[in-house]
Amino acid sequence: MDKEVGKRLAAEEAAKHVENGMTLGLGTGSxxxxxxxxxxxxxxxxWTLHGIPTSEQxxxxxxxxxxxxxxxxxxxxxxxxxxxxxxxxxxxxxxxGGGGIAAGENRRQRRxxxxxxxxxxxxxxxxxxxxxxxxx
Length: 136
Known about the structure:
Helix content is about 30%, strand content about 15%. The longest helix has 15 residues, at about 30-45. It has a single domain (about 5-135), classed as 3-Layer(aba) Sandwich (Rossmann fold). Helix 1 crosses helix 2 (about 30-45). It has helices at about 5-15, 30-45, 55-65, 100-110; strands at about 25, 50-55, 70, 80-85, 85-90, 95, 115. The protein is globular, with a radius of gyration of 14 Å.
């Protein structure tokens, strides 16, 4: 499967958990970009969604698509946080937070539920096989 197709499919699967009116933790990265695009399509159809982005990049994208941005201190509950795993082993154990914005991601994820999506390209025989600079 093409890498971009896999990213879009992972984002579509994650979006199945989103309901109208939710406050969402919005992850960062190439797959998260697809996820935010899907949310934007829903907002264009009349949905109301609130996002708490983990980066300025995700914030700008969400704003451009009409997703209302709120700050973490403006709510006590994030209904759902969707973000990617950095590595997944054959037993489906995962690592999150190996990328450059990990501190922002982890700080913002006070939530009711969290879903980590992963693509086949993130699977490793053991953790740490990919350098931080090459994670995507």
